[in-house]
Write a structure and sequence with these properties.
Helix content: 40-55%
Structural class: alpha/beta
Largest sheet: 6 strands, mixed
Strand content: 15-25%
Shape: globular
Radius of gyration: 19 Å
Number of strands: 10
Bound molecules: ligand LHQ
Number of helices: 10
């Protein structure tokens, strides 16, 4: 069984984490296939949005804990190797992808699995899904961008509570806290997430990529620097074919036909 399922439809590249008996916990093969799929998403003009989800009852339980030999006589494991070679590049790849990434959290998202969801652009979660920063239960530190995303999304009081207590946060609470875009009924999750991914795939892809760039940069910028960045990115957006099309369609009172260029 392939640990990542890949399909393409109407400009949407759908990626499904597929190790359901382990709640889609990551192993090296899964990282490799996800890396290849996201490279394809980046390089192929026909791919204009990505939809990420999990198969079975979980979204992703983070690192596969059964892959590590932690017995007393085993050599200590340097976890920075796995972060440096797999998790950090994955988070960077999702954030740097100049196309929107929609995440449909279909069930529990734990450890790195939770933070990989937060690295996506629009996160929908089934009402029965939950988010757990399970790292502290193992004596670890939230990784895969958790210590970056959490305080920015929910504020420092809630971020440290989530990280230290490792409580399960329901999808509805996650929506109320501003951790995710929306919690939706389980039966409607995939339909709603696919509709958003399809709408984004029919949109001005270049502009969307520039929006991601601007918003991601804002966390570390002063207002002055951000105003300069907006000026530069708007210059670039204004040279796109889709900007011309957007204005023409508005003036002609018709639906725009964006090409993603
Ligand atoms: C699993 C896992 C799992 C293997 C459920 N592995 N089998 C990065 C770099 C380097 C090193 C370290 O870490 C990292 C980042 C990380 O992600 S660290 C955090 C790793 N993840 C966790 O600590 C989460 C562990 N899982 C859980 O706490 C629970 O399974 C959650 C809360 C996710 C779900 O609980 P339940 O709904 O009660 O399900 P369950 O515990 O019964 O799990 C179902 C099955 O999935 C079970 O197998 P079994 O054969 O008994 O049915 C679990 O063993 C397996 N599973 N997570 N990470």
């Amino acid at each position: 069984m392939a640990p990542i399922l890949v399909s393409r439809d109407a400009g949407v590249l759908s990626l499904t984490l597929n190790r359901p008996d382990k709640l889609n916990a990551f192993n090296p093969e899964m990282h490799k296939l996800l890396r290849e799929a996201l490279e394809e998403a980046r390089d192929e003009a026909a791919v204009r949005s990505v939809l990420l989800t999990g198969s079975g009852r979980g979204f992703c339980a983070g690192q596969d804990l059964s892959e590590r030999n932690l017995s007393a006589d085993a050599a200590p494991i340097d976890l920075s190797v796995s972060l440096g070679s797999n998790y950090n590049p994955l988070v960077r790849r999702l954030r740097a992808l100049p196309k929107p990434v929609v995440c449909a959290v279909n069930g529990v998202a734990a450890g790195a699995g939770a933070n990989i969801a937060l690295a996506c652009d629009i996160v929908l979660a089934a009402r029965s899904a939950s988010f757990v920063q399970s790292f502290s239960k193992l004596g670890l530190v939230p990784d895969s961008g958790g210590t970056y995303f959490l305080p920015r999304l929910v504020g420092s009081a809630r971020a440290i509570g989530l990280a230290l207590l490792a409580d399960r946060l329901s999808a509805e609470e996650a929506e109320r806290w501003g951790l995710i875009w929306r919690a939706v009924d389980d039966a409607r999750l995939m339909e709603e997430a696919a509709a958003i991914a399809r709408a984004l795939a029919a949109g001005p892809t270049k502009g969307y990529g520039l929006i991601k760039k601007a918003l991601h940069a804002s966390a570390g910028n002063s207002l002055d620097a951000q105003l300069d960045l907006e000026r530069d990115l708007q210059r670039e957006a204004g040279f796109s074919e889709d900007y011309r099309e957007g204005v023409a369609a508005f003036l002609q009172k018709r639906k725009p036909q964006y090409k993603g260029k």
